[in-house]
Specification:
Radius of gyration: 21 Å
Number of domains: 3
CATH topology of the largest domain: Immunoglobulin-like
Bound molecules: zinc ion
Number of strands: 20
Mean pLDDT: 91
Structural class: alpha+beta
Largest sheet: 7 strands, mixed
Number of helices: 8
CATH class of the largest domain: Mainly Beta
Helix content: 10-25%
Oligomer: single chain
């Protein structure tokens, strides 16, 4: 990929205490004729929620994870997915300010969430986002090359994507008169190309739009997504984004699917559609640090998908495991052949066993309450453990299921 970013700081401002504390992104990007390169300006407003003055912030440029050589970003560290932005003066606790910068994104020739295949380009994890700063400091972990190493908080986006009329440009959020608004989402993704689109509505009123390469049959995929979004709304809390865009392509051979808020990338015909829809809740609505705790979204999305399919996977637990399911992406990046089976397969099996221990109704009530308690927030393994133990799980369950 190629990403050029120059920084210009806006003046800091003092806003009333009632101001929204989550980050707010504004961007106006214009594409080239093919939709492969987008450039323009981005602004990020944020509040210092820590107890000490904030002298700087960091942006995550995840689009640089696979190719640093063409990137020129002022303040970029040795890991080119990080850009440090010094503030003109330290930001006082509780105060809000914004930074603005020019940005150019060029989709690399890769079959990937940020990549380009023929006339179709995909901009997942491409738009620069604010790194998370919390009690542990700045989260600047690397992309380890498999799965997701990302960590963001829910934010509001107002994005204007200007493009030739002949290009179809599905995205996160809902577009009216060229302005796309997405509220309380962790990321903003889009795609561009000569997609064929369809539109339908799930029985419970979620608009399902498909955007497909010309040879894909999307009817079954749209129906599956509609059934899943309604089912998960019933189980975990109503889908809040109104619309779900499914971007389906049958050109890729090396990538199966990727979740973004209100926007899912899928390959056809073997689409992991239910799994990616489940991520709308587990990663999207209920967030987690995907680098530190990948099982908190992947095991849950896999378990939710099993529930949707009516598969409780009896006898799936292997008995004992030599390492914990709860390892971080640094570990899985160094043990790539174990990642899928531990985090997805054994992780979801642990949840099935938890359901067997506390009972189906208690598990369902616990998950709905857990989702509600962390709606648009960030959950941790300790949060989930507390919720499960309050629902009747014995403390011994964590050691017996490689969760600690
Ligand atoms: Zn997943």
């Amino acid at each position: 990929m190629h990403l050029v970013l120059s920084l210009l700081l806006a003046s800091s401002s003092v806003l009333p205490a009632t101001v929204e504390r989550s980050p707010a992104y504004q961007a106006e990007l214009t594409s080239n004729a093919a939709g492969t390169t987008w450039s323009g300006r981005e602004t990020v407003a944020f509040t210092n929620t820590s107890a000490t003055p904030l002298p700087e912030v960091y942006l995550r440029l995840w689009g640089n994870a696979h190719g640093c050589s063409a990137v020129k970003v002022p303040g970029t560290t040795s890991d080119c997915t990080v850009a440090k932005v010094a503030l003109p003066e330290p930001l006082t606790p509780g105060k809000r300010t914004s930074i603005s910068f020019d940005v150019t994104l060029t989709a690399p020739y890769r079959e990937d969430r940020f990549g380009r295949s023929g006339a179709f380009s995909f901009f997942g994890n491409a738009l620069p986002v604010l790194a998370v700063h919390d009690g542990a400091g700045w989260h600047l972990d690397p992309d380890v090359g498999i799965g997701e190493s990302f960590y963001t908080v829910a934010a509001n986006f107002a994005v204007r994507l200007k493009h030739p009329a002949g290009l179809a440009v599905p995205s996160t959020g809902i577009t009216t008169d060229g302005l796309t608004i997405a509220k309380q989402v962790r990321d903003f993704a889009w795609a561009a190309g000569p997609f064929r689109s369809t539109e339908s509505t799930s029985p419970h009123g979620v608009k399902i739009r498909t955007w497909a390469t010309p040879t894909v049959n999307v009817a079954g995929i749209a129906q599956e997504a509609a059934a899943a979004v309604d089912d998960f709304s019933r189980r975990f809390g109503a889908y809040p984004y109104g619309e779900l865009d499914l971007v389906v392509n049958d050109r890729w051979t090396s990538f199966s699917g990727m979740e973004y808020p209100g926007f899912v990338l899928l390959i056809a015909p073997e689409s992991p559609v239910v799994h990616e829809v489940a991520h709308q809740w587990w990663y999207g609505i209920v967030g987690n640090n995907e680098y530190a705790d990948p099982w908190l979204d992947e095991a849950f999305a896999t378990y939710a998908s099993d529930l949707h399919d009516g598969d409780h996977r009896p006898g799936c637990w292997p008995g004992s495991l030599p390492t914990a399911i709860t390892r971080d992406m640094g570990y899985w990046g160094a043990h790539q052949t174990s990642y899928g089976v531990y985090v997805y397969t054994y992780g979801s099996c642990a949840l099935h066993d938890l359901e067997r221990v506390i009972g189906g109704p208690a598990m369902a009530r616990m998950l709905a309450a857990y989702a509600k308690a962390h709606w648009y927030g960030v959950s941790t393994p300790a949060d989930f453990r507390a919720a499960a133990q309050a629902a009747g799980a014995p403390a011994s369950f964590w050691a017996s299921h490689a969760l600690s």
